[in-house]
Amino acid sequence: MEDKKALRKMVLTSLKKMDQAEKERKVQKIHERLFATDVWRKARTVAVTVSQGTEIDTHEIIRQGWLEKKTIAVPKCLPETKTLIFRAIDDFSQLESVYYGLLEPKLEETQPVEKKDMDLIIVPGLLFDRKGYRIGFGGGYYDRFLVDVSAVKLSQALDVQIASDIPHEVHDIPVDIIITPEAVHYCRGR
After folding, report:
1. Measured in whole angstroms, how far is the alpha carbon of residue 100 from the centre of its chain?
2. Helix, coil or strand: residue 158
3. pTM to 2 decimals?
């Protein structure tokens, strides 16, 4: 557990030091690669967090999904059970700022989306290895949510977020695809 904390801190420091213009160029390349994949083109329902801070931007993914008439589902954290529920949004005004400044769907303005109806889940994370294992932000919300998911699990990562190997536990669920500015990496023999 201490290893993961140290790795999180190291990656966050690297992300904060990145030149903003360079980061934006790299993120644009990631998005171009994502939008060119069959996985994206075939997906009708895309689950994605609303990025903030040092996270790789997802606002452009959400906008592109709306342009392509995809259902965009964003998570709401339930801290008492450390679980996620997803709700469909079709406008950023349907979001509200909650604890830690996270943007989450307003329950009264959105409809639930079940995990069985998701085609693509864009999984956030800080550090990834080539097998698809990830170190997230420490809450374990996504590891709990991804159990029994049939949707493709995909993550976006910059160079500083890729490691040759990271510590993982039995309950950790790897992603299927990692997209970097340079390539689309298929994990676990996909």
Report:
1. 17
2. coil
3. 0.92
Strand order in the sheet with 71-78: 111-113, 83-89, 71-78, 45-48, 120-122, 152-156, 177-179, 184-186
How high is the pLDDT of residue 190?
A: 41
How far apart CA 111 and CA 21 sit, in angstroms, is: 36
3: phi > 0 → left, psi -120 to 50 → alpha, else beta; which?
alpha
Q: How far is CA 179 from CA 33, 45, 93, 114, in A?
A: 7, 19, 29, 25
As a whole number of angstroms, the distance between CA 74 and CA 46 comes to 9
Distances (CA, A) of 82 to 89, 113, 142: 22, 18, 9
Q: What sign has the CA pseudo-torsion 150, 72, 53, 16?
A: positive
Q: How far apart are CA 148 and CA 173, in angstroms?
A: 10
Instruction: State the fold for domain 2-186.
Output: Rossmann fold (3.40.50)
Instruction: Give the pLDDT confidence score for residue 53 in this predicted structure.
Output: 82
Cβ atoms of 127 and 163 closer than 8 Å: yes
Parse the chain into domains and list their residue ranges: 2-186
DSSP tally for the chain: helices H, then strands E: 5, 13
What does the pLDDT read at residue 2?
52
Q: Are 48 and 119 in contact (CB under 8 A)?
A: no
Instruction: Determine contact, residues 59/74, Cβ cutoff 8 Å.
Output: no
